[in-house]
UniProtKB/TrEMBL annotation:
Recorded family membership: Belongs to the glycosyl hydrolase 43 family.
GO molecular function, one term: hydrolase activity, hydrolyzing O-glycosyl compounds
PANTHER family on file: GLYCOSYL HYDROLASE 43 FAMILY MEMBER, GLYCOSYL HYDROLASE FAMILY PROTEIN 43
Organism in which the protein naturally occurs: Leeuwenhoekiella nanhaiensis
InterPro entries in the cross-refs: Glyco_hydro_43, Glyco_hydro_beta-prop_sf
Keywords: Glycosidase, Hydrolase, Signal
Record's protein name: Beta-xylosidase
Signal peptide segment: 1-26
Amino acid sequence: MLKLYCFRLEKVIFFIGLFQFSSSYAQNQTITNDSFWETVEGQPIYSQGGGIFQFRDSQSGSPKYYWYGVHYAEAETYRDDPSVTLERNHFKGVTCYTSTDLVNWTFEKQVLTPEAVNYDSNPTWLGRMGVAYVAEIDQYALFIQHGKNVMIALADSPLGDFKVHRHIDMTGRIGTPNTGDQTVFTDPNTGKSYLVYSYGQGRNKIYVSEIGVRDGKVDLLDLTEIFRGASREGNCMFKYKDKYYMAASNIYGWDGSLAYYLVADDIRGPYKPTNEMLIMPGSEQDYAHVSQTGFFYTLKGSKEETVLFCGDRWAEFAGNGLGYNQWVPLSFKEDVPHFNSLHAWNLDAVTGNWTVAKTNNYVKNGSFEADRRHIPSNNKPVQEQLLGWHTEIIKGNKIATNDPSSPVLNYFNTREDRKQVVGEKSLNISDSVPFERRITQEISSTEFVDLPDGNYTLSLKIKNNSRFEQLKLYASSGGQTFEIHLDDEHPEWIPVTLESVNVRDGKVTVGIYAKGQNGTSAQIDDVRLEMGAIRR
């Protein structure tokens, strides 16, 4: 017993020390969202519904970050042709990527293969997984949803190969054979790992169970219900400044969602506010950068403790943009986490410091993919305005969720459209009567992210007919307005660029002004505000 205890303690100390290793890659490496990621070798990264864990390399003995996730066949298809949204999912394996700086990743191997789970004879769902080191047996345990059960696979090394150990029917524990969404969380201070999961039907209850060994088998040692309320998915947990945060998303299928959270002093609670998740400030304008809560990673650098929100964008099944992984840094004010919706940002894994990248696009929901339905919508979620944008009706039919004469504010792109612009949706400007309107977004410095003064480029893509009296793109800042007229007909999508937008005092209004007759129509997509000259 003493020998096992000492071995476990060594592992715990090692876990804590991993935050402080140096790296040749460190110092302001850029993470770019809204794109398909690649390894350092230039190969596609396919990793969804997983997590990042810290283990020692079994060959070199050096510390590494191990990123596990599921590779679906549809992720390849959509990456090759994002003009088609796919319906079904086909498991190709659990991938493992390693890194020393959380930005540059190397593909190691498939650590759980279709053959290991007899996928060809039982082509069922596999997803929502994570890996825990189980000290009592010196094994690595992979927990993954497999059909209607929780499957556990074991390996001697974090690189596998993982072999099926057992399936757990959760009925006797929570009342359903399956969990809802689940993740693995390892407490950086104790080294203990936990499965965080929801009730399998309706997902209105969330549980935490410690992972360990019972009767010679890897098992869930206990069960604590930490939430009972509105249905939630994407259940995951992180720790920051010795507080535990439970986070989740709405039940929106494959689509993005607001990010919700609870906070506690102990992993088993009580979590506050009781059974009432709070919206994470900053996630409202674009539904957490058009993603679901996937997992978090807390980086304890030499200077800062930084929490990474690692969102899953299930683009191949939702058609909601490019890139499957949307990672942003969180900021904190007391115990309130703030979501910083960034397109591009820099991370130093040694110090823990992060900064906004010069290539960041400051527009929220610029490709209009956050909105799930035609807007205004009288269905879940009831919504009058496009997320991140405000449409002011100067003349024409008013916006209303229950009025059939209301203008529809977004357009569902055709497959041909999607070969030119990103995602299923774009901004729609039209009405059944003569109209005049402004569509605007206010962009300004926040407490945590500056909008630096300087020259910016505002760009978009547009197609429109010839019935506009006036149509223009503009930006206003510091008492100046910069604009470009778009009145001419553009039957096919074209790019439009407004350069030298002079931003002052850390705020700018970007907008489209439109005046036209009934039957006038324009679609706008992929709006960007970037510092300096546009990249072509």
